[in-house]
Design goal:
Blueprint lengths: L1 E10 L2 E7 L8 E5 L6 H13 L1 H7 L18 E12 L5 E13 L7 E2 L3 E8 L2 E4 L3 H8 L5 H4 E3 L13 H15 L2 H25 L2 H51 L2 H34 L1 H24 L7 H11 L13 H32 L4 H41 L2 H53 L3 H44 L10 E6 L5 E5 L4 E2 L7 H19 L4 E5 L7 H12 L10 E6 L1 H4 L3 H7 E9 L21 E4 L5 E2 L14 E2 L7
Parallel strand pairs: 3-14, 3-15, 9-13, 13-14, 17-18
Antiparallel strand pairs: 1-2, 1-4, 4-5, 5-6, 5-7, 7-8, 10-11, 11-12, 15-16
């Protein structure tokens, strides 16, 4: 099945959207570009509804009571929702024909509560030159081409793409999903049905042969049938017990992981001791810090600071005072001499200084002048003597600088130690806060209890297996005895031949079933490893690599082996990109081995993927088929960000491009208001822009950052 086009009418905001898909085997990729909220997921849901009806939305979209119409639709007014899908199909004879599938329903939105919806109608027509020819039993026909039970393989939401390998379900449920996908997609289930039919036929013939062989044979046949029933019951009991065991083992694994994480935080007593030590260390650091501050304060109050700041000025002043002394300006002794001469009334030169003489008046005047300068001279004299007593040695001058440097170093070291201790304390307290001692005790008790249950389950499985073996031995004995009685009583030979042929056919079918299932699993496993290692860029023999191999176990679990030989937990030890790569590798390998030609539509598959992994992933899932690989069709719903780094690959592998945009994004994101202000509801439109273009429908404000070429027209599909 290859989808050629889809037309969607009034589904959500897809009021009138047509999209064409590439069916060129050399360019199998269709790129539908759309930002978040532009309608990509609605497009996925519309196609699911078109193919499967409400069952498709309930199963794949995980929606219990989905609304098909837009929330903008007026309450009480019926809306005709329609999806039309045109596709081609090549039958077993190699003939390719085109078909048109149309699903229609009337839905009436309600002001309160879910909408009212009528019974949808599905029509399927084969397109011929003579006109459309209706195909009866359209639902069954579509189910045969793309079964609903496998819709998760054909239509996938990128956020849920890890469902086959990752942890939203228990491991045995994932194993069942992988097993079921392999059996159904590879057609093994049809063989299983045939085996069941052959068992039924064989059993009926055996009973008829026994009935014609007499009462003894009939009683033996009843005993054989009772033993078969007991074996079946014990096998069912073993299956149920194994299921419970797997559930308990999964729960045990999760509890052990949680307990290991709690214990990995640290021992509570050790953390308390560490916190106490850190608090003491913090107090010591603060004491050192305060001591350094006290030393600094003392240094600012002492002579070293004064000497450091006044050394140059003091030396200059001492030099000036010494100069005044050399000039005998200080000390000032002339005042005393003049007073003595006036008292003696005779000058040192012998002249008369008696009162009334002119010379005496002159000396008196000089004495008054000297008295005016005596205070300054006295202070200068005292200052010189004081300065002479102040020893201004070089060591004293440098003392403050040395003291300051040492004290500052002590303060900085104490502060740094304090900061480190504070960080360590917060980390230790944070760890302690995450330790739930009660939870540790609870987990320990639960693990002990589940361990006992698992051990009891192992014993029970052993007893069940022994009972089955015992019943099988008894059955073998009864069947041999029945065979002797039947031959002795000469039952109808035709019935005996039919019985024996039916038994041989049943055994042959069972052997073929087991062989095919084993071979298919090995083929899928081998191809799975090739694709996954190619995407993640790993070499199995690389010494420093992470991944060594991937395989599907006998229990149908997908396991990833590390280089050191351990199996990695796909939930917790694989990043998001590797999980997506692993699931895509499984889907692709399964479809290749099954030689299925069907669309593979993935919404936002490249989230959490970048760089080389992103390029290799896109190349792997979009390159044209080679060799004996069957043709296929891949449809990727991508955002502009996802397209970055892989534009060249898209250009190389894509045969069709479409961009979808929603009017609600104007003016925040969209550049143009193409719907108009008068519109009462938002709408999604499609344009033919490639990943490198934009137009008046899809142009966004971020397009310059993506280097898009703008076309000043409305490019409609």
């Amino acid at each position: 099945m290859m989808i050629k086009s889809v037309h969607i009418s009034r589904f959500k905001l897809l009021r009138d959207v047509t999209i064409h898909f590439s069916v060129d085997p050399e360019r199998p990729l269709t790129v539908i570009r759309g930002e978040n909220g532009s309608g990509k997921t609605s497009l996925l849901y519309a196609m699911l509804w078109g193919l499967y009806g409400m069952a498709g939305l309930t199963k794949v979209a995980n929606i219990e009571a989905p609304r098909l119409t837009s929330t903008f639709c007026r309450a009480g007014s019926p809306v005709a929702v329609e999806v039309e899908i045109v596709f081609s199909h090549t039958d077993d004879m190699g003939t390719t024909s085109e078909y048109r599938l149309r699903r229609l329903v009337l839905e009436t939105p309600q002001a309160d509560g879910p909408p009212r919806r009528g019974q949808d109608s599905l029509t399927l027509a084969k397109l011929t030159p003579e006109g459309d020819k209706p195909v009866p039993a359209a639902d069954a026909w579509v189910e045969r081409l793309v079964p609903l039970r496998l819709s998760e393989l054909f239509f996938t939401n990128g956020d849920d793409i890890q469902k086959f390998i990752s942890g939203r379900v228990y491991s045995h449920e994932r194993q069942a999903k992988v097993h079921q996908a392999i059996r159904e997609l590879l057609g093994i289930d049809q063989l299983t049905t045939a085996v069941g039919d052959l068992k039924s036929v064989h059993g009926g013939l055996k009973r008829r042969v026994s009935a014609e062989s007499g009462k003894d044979a009939e009683e033996l046949e009843e005993q054989c049938e009772a033993l078969r029933q007991q074996i079946t019951e014990q096998e069912q009991l073993r299956t149920a017990t194994e299921g419970r065991q797997k559930s308990m083992e999964t729960q045990q694994h999760e509890w052990e992981r949680e307990l290991a994480q709690l214990r990995g935080i640290g021992d509570l007593d050790e953390l308390n001791a560490q916190i106490s030590t850190l608090k003491g260390r913090i107090q010591a650091c603060r004491a050192r810090e305060n001591a350094a501050l006290a030393d600094m304060k003392s240094a600012f109050k002492g002579q070293p600071l004064s000497r450091a700041f006044t050394a140059a000025g003091l030396a200059h002043g001492q030099a000036k005072l010494d100069e005044l002394a050399d000039r005998r300006v200080i000390p000032n002794t002339s005042l005393k001499v003049l007073q003595d001469r006036l008292e003696e009334e005779e000058c040192i030169c012998g002249s008369d200084l008696h009162p009334g003489t002119a010379l005496r008046e002159h000396v008196v005047q000089l004495l008054e002048e000297q008295r005016e300068h005596s205070d300054m001279a006295q202070r200068l004299t005292e200052l010189r003597y004081s300065a002479a007593a102040f020893d201004l040695a070089a060591a004293d001058v440098d003392a403050f600088a040395a003291k300051r440097q040492a004290t500052l170093a002590d303060y900085t070291a104490a502060r740094d130690d304090l900061n480190r201790a504070d960080v360590e304390l917060k980390q230790a307290e944070s760890k302690r806060s995450r330790i739930d001692d009660a939870r540790v005790r609870t987990l320990t008790d639960e693990l002990a209890a589940v361990g006992k249950k698992i051990a009891a389950g192992v014993l029970e499985l052993g007893r069940i297996t022994e009972r089955i073996a015992q019943y099988e031995r008894q059955l073998d004995e009864r069947e041999q005895e029945l065979s002797r009685v039947t031959q002795k009583n000469r039952a109808n030979q035709d019935l005996i031949i039919k019985r024996d042929v039916a038994e041989e056919l049943r055994e042959l079918a069972e052997r073929v079933q087991r062989r095919l299932e084993g071979e298919y699993v090995r083929k899928v496993s081998t191809r799975l490893q090739e694709i996954f290692l190619s995407i993640v860029g790993a070499e199995p023999d690389a010494h420093l690599g992470v991944f060594k191999g991937v395989s599907i176990t006998d229990k149908f679990d997908i396991v990833v082996e590390s280089q050191n030989g351990t199996n990695l937990d796909t939930d917790y030890e694989l990043n998001g990109a590797s999980q997506r790569a692993l699931t895509l590798a499984f889907i692709w390998s399964l479809m290749e081995v099954a030689a299925i030609t069907a669309p593979r539509l993935i919404d936002t598959p490249l989230g959490m993927v970048s760089g080389g992994v992103k390029q290799r992933m896109v190349n792997t899932i979009t390159h044209p088929p080679t060799g004996e690989e069957p043709p296929y069709q891949v449809i990727l719903l991508l955002t502009r960000s996802e397209i970055m780094e892989v534009g060249d690959l898209l250009q190389q592998h894509a045969g069709a491009f479409t961009t979808i945009s929603c009017s609600k994004d104007y003016p925040t994101d969209l550049v143009y208001d193409w719907l108009g202000e008068d519109s009462e509801q938002a709408e999604v439109r499609a344009c033919a822009c490639t990943h490198e273009q934009s137009c008046r429908i899809c142009a966004r404000h971020i397009d310059n950052a993506h280097g898009l070429a703008f076309q000043d027209i409305e490019v409609t599909v």
